């Protein structure tokens, strides 16, 4: 039995993502079959339930639902069910429960309760045999394989892709925007090596990081802050670019590291003025995304251009590498962050 190499699991799982994306796209018909049932039921409102990284994936799906399906969507507060016993009428509502493990007690209770109250329930998980899958009427298997590192990488990005394929199929799409993502993911990982290495050196001794994005990229900013906090123990905080100028920018100065997620499209366009202000206050800005070259930044990490609605599936990849590299550079093991477990039991 060999000794564990710090970060070995996380590095391997980051590298697996191009194949996972290609395999998931190849299974699109299975997801489309779930979408057919949803479309026949004609939901008038969509709720998403999730925790942790899955909550960021759910926020991405909320954007997809509101923009591509033009349906109102919201994020569930599980405690309204688990702690307060609320029993809202959920007829004509679609509840999508997003959980990598499918083992969180609060999401299980929310799903069971919602189904009893008339909701069409769908579980999106990486564990086909999970209690959550059994509780939901329909299920989508993201098929990322066992994830050994505590910090979610491949399960997060595969969840994004599964949710995109589901929403796209509900609107009658053919998944064409997702078709090249396997190859583009490999290009992203290969093409960002040098810039990520430079970012590791820039951020190695930083204690405070602010992440920001707009639109579809906001979930990436949130996930980026979580990854940096849980692997490198940085004080990382995420803000929408729109909210950043409403007060938090006052705390930005030359000692602030800012990771900005910006891809070509309306969200990236909306971030330009924000980054001009942040950069002007002396912050060290690292821009990640297909629009990184067009914004004020000290360092840019490139990502291939895609339709804006699938950009988050690629944007997060170099940030995962950054979190991995920073953790090692700061003497940690990103496979085993202190105080964390793979499945968190909450109610």
Descriptive account of the structure:
The chain is of the alpha/beta class and 347 residues long. It has 2 domains: 8-170, Rossmann fold (3-Layer(aba) Sandwich); 182-329, 3-Layer(aba) Sandwich (Rossmann fold). It is 47% helix and 15% strand. It is built from 14 helices and 10 strands. Helix 3 (28-41) crosses helix 8 (154-170) and helix 10 packs across helix 14. The longest helix has 19 residues, at 311-329. The two termini are 38 Å apart. The model has no long low-confidence stretch (mean pLDDT 93).
Keywords:
about 350 residues; alpha/beta; Rossmann fold; 5-stranded parallel sheet; about 45% helix; about 15% strand; SIS_dom; repeat; SIS_dom_sf
Map the helices and strands.
Layout: H1 8-15, H2 17-26, H3 28-41, E1 45-49, H4 53-69, E2 73-75, H5 78-82, E3 93-99, H6 105-116, E4 120-125, H7 131-135, E5 138-141, H8 154-170, H9 181-191, H10 193-203, E6 208-213, H11 218-232, E7 235-240, H12 241-244, E8 257-261, H13 266-280, E9 284-289, E10 299-302, H14 311-329
Parallel strand pairs: 1-2, 1-3, 3-4, 4-5, 6-7, 6-8, 8-9, 9-10
Helix pairs in contact: 2-8, 2-9, 3-8, 4-8, 4-11, 8-14, 9-14, 10-14, 11-14
């Amino acid at each position: 039995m060999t000794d564990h190499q710090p970060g070995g699991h996380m590095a391997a799982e980051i590298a697996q993502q191009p194949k996972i994306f290609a395999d998931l796209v190849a299974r699109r018909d299975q997801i489309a079959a779930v979408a057919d049932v949803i479309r026949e039921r004609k939901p008038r409102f969509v709720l998403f339930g999730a925790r942790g990284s899955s909550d960021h994936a759910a926020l991405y799906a909320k954007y997809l639902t509101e923009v591509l399906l033009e349906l109102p969507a919201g994020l569930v507060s599980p405690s309204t069910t688990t702690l307060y016993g609320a029993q809202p009428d959920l007829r004509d509502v679609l509840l999508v429960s997003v959980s990598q493990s499918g083992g969180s007690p609060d999401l299980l209770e929310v799903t069971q309760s919602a189904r009893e109250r008339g909701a069409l329930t769908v579980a999106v998980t990486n564990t086909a045999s999970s209690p959550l899958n059994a509780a939901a009427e329909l299920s989508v298997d993201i098929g990322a394989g066992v994830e050994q590192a505590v910090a979610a990488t491949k399960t997060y990005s595969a969840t994004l892709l599964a949710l995109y394929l589901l929403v796209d199929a509900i609107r009658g799409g053919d998944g064409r925007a997702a078709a090249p993502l396997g190859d583009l993911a490999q290009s992203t990982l290969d093409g960002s090596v040098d810039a990520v290495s430079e970012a590791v050196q820039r951020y190695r001794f930083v204690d405070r990081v602010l992440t920001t994005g707009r639109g579809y990229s906001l979930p990436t900013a949130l996930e980026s802050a979580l990854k940096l906090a849980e692997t490198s123990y940085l004080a990382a905080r995420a803000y929408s670019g729109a909210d950043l100028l409403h007060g938090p920018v006052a705390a930005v100065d030359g000692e602030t590291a800012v990771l900005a997620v910006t891809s070509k499209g309306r969200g990236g366009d909306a971030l330009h003025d924000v980054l001009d202000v942040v950069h002007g206050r002396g912050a060290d800005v690292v821009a990640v995304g297909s629009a990184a070259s067009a914004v004020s930044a000290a360092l840019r990490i490139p990502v291939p251009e895609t339709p804006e609605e699938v950009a988050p599936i690629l944007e997060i990849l170099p940030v995962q590498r950054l979190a991995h590299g920073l953790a090692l550079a700061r003497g940690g093991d990103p496979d085993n962050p202190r105080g964390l477990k793979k499945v968190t039991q909450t109610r």
